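Board notes (copied after class):
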Amino acid sequence: MVYEVAGTELVSFSKTNIHLSESQEKDNESYVGMMEYVLSKPGFYFSYTFDITHTLQRRHRFFGIKSQFCSMPLHERADERFMWNTHLMQDLVVLPELHRFIVPIIHGFVCTKKGVINGNCIKFCLISRRSTQRAGVRYYRRGIDNAGSVANYVETEQIVFYGGNSMSFVQTRGSIPLHWSQRPCLKYKPPAVISDCSNQVYTSFRMG
């Protein structure tokens, strides 16, 4: 079972904001507003039993390398590129008694459909995982960074379960892996600008 986050609430540790200055209170309202805006958007998913941060290929490969991989808690084996609550869980990870409250959350899309072929049940699952690294809105976030992460990287996996077997097909997309930018304007297609890297050493490209 995979669930979509239906609602969230920000709970302050402080009962009042009287200790904040006027400028700090404005900043706090701004940050809270941004958080509430992001969390109000659809597309956050989680599962208590199925690792939705990894493709079936990665799970199979890791299981061959480390036999206890599939028995590890979901948050310990999750792919941090697609786990959107990693930072939020940092204080809980160090406390084993709280591990049962840690559930990886992805941002993207999940859909599962069932059908019957020749009298046999078939299940089709589509999962799109949006990377946490270099995420942003179109035009404002472009290109690649020095760590090799491209803007708005998305991994889409199609999974078919049939006759006790599972098959997976994965596609990836992301911004052009160059250091470039595009300033939004009134033009339909703002001109792209390649960054000047002549005086800097970049190690953006890495072996996957």
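Comment from the instructor: The helical segments are 22-39, 56-65, 74-77, 90-93. The CA atoms of residues 169 and 208 lie 18 Å apart.
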